[in-house]
């Protein structure tokens, strides 16, 4: 994006300088106007910034391309196991029970565990 923003002043400045040099070569002296020198300075500064940006982007690209992939170890958390407690009940009920997927009364769940 930054290079694109710097490109438009560069294009405008280069076009202005080229047109003024062409007119000066045809006989209408344009080199005496201060705008000519302002455009030359603007052209040089914007070109220098563009080159600087392109080189920095190229450096980042080369660094990123040559970087080795790091495999991050994601810790595994077992949500079914609570340290210090024994697992006494089922986490997933049996699918052959008629009440599978429905909410039961506490009395029904106590009866099915016994």
Automatic annotation (TrEMBL):
Which GO MF terms does the UniProt record name? magnesium ion transmembrane transporter activity
Protein's cellular compartments: Membrane
Note the topology in the membrane: Multi-pass membrane protein
Chief place where the protein resides: membrane
- The transmembrane residues are 34-64
Q: Which domain of life is it from?
A: Eukaryota
- The protein in question is named Uncharacterized protein
Q: What family does the Swiss-Prot or TrEMBL record give for this protein?
A: Belongs to the NIPA family.
Task: Name a single GO cellular component.
Answer: membrane
* The keyword Plastid appears for this protein: no
Keyword set for this entry? Membrane, Transmembrane, Transmembrane helix
- Species of the source: Athene cunicularia (Burrowing owl)
């Amino acid at each position: 994006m930054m290079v694109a923003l710097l490109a438009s002043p560069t294009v405008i400045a280069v076009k202005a300088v080229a047109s003024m040099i062409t007119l000066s070569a045809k006989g209408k002296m344009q080199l005496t106007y201060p705008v000519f020198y302002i455009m030359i300075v603007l052209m040089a500064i914007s070109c220098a910034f563009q080159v600087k940006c392109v080189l920095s982007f190229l450096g980042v690209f080369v660094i990123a391309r040559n970087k080795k992939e790091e495999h991050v170890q994601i810790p595994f958390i077992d949500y079914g196991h609570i340290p210090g407690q024994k697992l006494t009940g089922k986490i997933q009920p049996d699918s052959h029970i008629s009440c599978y997927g429905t909410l039961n009364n506490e009395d029904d769940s106590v009866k099915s565990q016994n």
